[in-house]
Amino acid sequence: MSDGRDSRGLNLPFGTTLNLKGYPLVPGQIDCSFYMKSKECKFGSNCKFNHPENVPRDRYRDLSHYEAFRQHNKDRMDVSFFLCHFTKSTNPVVSQTNNIHRIQGFAHERLEAILTKKKVYDCVLPHLDAPVQAVCFTEMMLPSLSMHAEKYSPWGVAFHKSFLFNETKANQVLYCRDELFQSMKEKAQGDHDLLRYMTPFAPKYSEQLHQGTNPIDYSHEREWRTPGPVSFELKNLAYVFVPDIRVFKELMPDLHTQLCEEGVEIRVIEKVAKENSCNNSYRCQRANCWYAHTPDENDVFHWRTGQERRGEERRGEERRGEERRGEERRGEEMRRGEERRGEERRGEERRGTPGTDPRYGSPITLLSGGSSSRA
Ligand SMILES: [Zn+2]
Ligand SMILES: [Zn+2]
């Protein structure tokens, strides 16, 4: 780790991760043509191209409009073919009222909910002073997504642009100068379908901007929004973004299987390297780590601790249940023994002729026999 080489000792660029078959995942690099054809690559872990976790099956892709669009724009380097949505552990907007987020929890749990429910919920937008709701996407290119994920999390989904445009009325957002935004906002008062696509533009080169330690810069956003939640099928997904394939499999084993079976491509979002940050990232044994971790990594560590605790509790519950059932079984056996002995006693009583000789019958038999004979 300290000599700047990958901890596995391979001759890979620093921080390169491998897919579960052992081939490199290289964000931003084109896909390896050998691997995409045969699911194998003779260059193995030394290949410089990208090897997605699973090779998508064409028949599952949302190809209806996508392929024509792709062909038309294949030589335009800045045209993205999909729109990405990343989750966040905190609520996206804090200052707004009526802001009920229907998916709570850590960023990875929200992604899990999105993939399980097959629905991305909308939330209230900032800046508009009204409860206008939308789902937000970015059309950033793959190499820029690591920086984007710093603001959100590395957990996310991407849809084909054609699907969101045609099926969910997605539209680009107009980022405009503050004075323009204010006047447009006043004119569109009450019209959520107009307000939804407006946002004040704050580039870093603005003279009016207060340059704090972490200045706002919207110049890279390239945002799209949809009115209302986005319901989808897995075939509409272009990618599922995760920080680490193994961690994804650890947290959501069933979804990993399902995505692989349905041919949805899983892409790794690389962590932006920072001074002092932990290279073991999500796989770190946290207790003895001196390096810095991202909030999302800490969330996963919390989740793991919670899982261990829940496992303990479940095992304790099972143990107590076992004990309880044991006691019930013993009680049942005792009751049956009691009954059997009573049965035997009554059998003996029946065989001895009750009522004729008081010395052989029980007092009760004698009494009831006596009373019935009197009646
Ligand atoms: Zn290759
Ligand atoms: Zn660490």
From TrEMBL:
The residue ranges flagged as biased composition, category Basic and acidic residues, are: 303-352
Q: Which residues lie within the region annotated Disordered? A: 303-375
Which part of the chain is the C3H1-type domain?
Answer: 27-54
ZnF bounds (C3H1-type): 27-54
Query: Which keywords appear in this protein's UniProt record, sorted alphabetically?
Result: DNA-binding, Metal-binding, Zinc, Zinc-finger
Tell me if Transit peptide is a UniProt keyword of this record: no
Q: Which PROSITE patterns match?
A: ZF_C3H1
The molecular function terms in GO held by this entry are: DNA binding; mRNA binding; zinc ion binding
**UniProt KW DNA-binding keyword:** yes
The identity of this protein, by name, is C3H1-type domain-containing protein
Its organism's taxonomic lineage begins at: Eukaryota, Sar, Alveolata, Dinophyceae, Suessiales
